[in-house]
Amino acid sequence: MHTITPQELKQRLENGENLTIIDVREPEEVALGMIPGAKHIPLMEIPQRLGEIPQHSETILVCRSGNRSGRALEYLEAQGFTGLVNMTGGMLEWEQL
E strand or H helix at 73, and its extent? Predict the structure, then answer.
């Protein structure tokens, strides 16, 4: 499983990279704050919203701690997606930056 730390992601965003970030948390969690530019697709909606996720380019998956985004990554890989990256530590670590 490919991973990225919140620090690495923050640096890439500060460098002006145009990244695809999918936040798989629930709406009440996202209401407390999101990474700028992230797209919100709750984990349970991913099967119905596959068309909104790039199939073969880098896509960074984010959740609260890294567990749900890891499950999303495994599911998407099983559907033939490539280029998926899990943000370890999730928003809990992001908020400490």
Answer: helix 67-78
The domain of 16 spans 2-95
Digit-coded pLDDT (tens) for 6-31? 999 999 999 999 999 999 999 999 99
In terms of Cβ atoms closer than 10 Å to its own Cβ (0-12, 13-18, 19+), residue 93 is middle
Query: Model's pTM, two decimal places?
Result: 0.97
Report the CATH number that the domain containing residue 51 is assigned in CATH: 3.40.250.10
For the chain, the domain total comes to: 1
Q: How many residues does the chain have?
A: 97
Catalytic residue among 38, 63, 76, 84: 63
Active site residue 63: yes
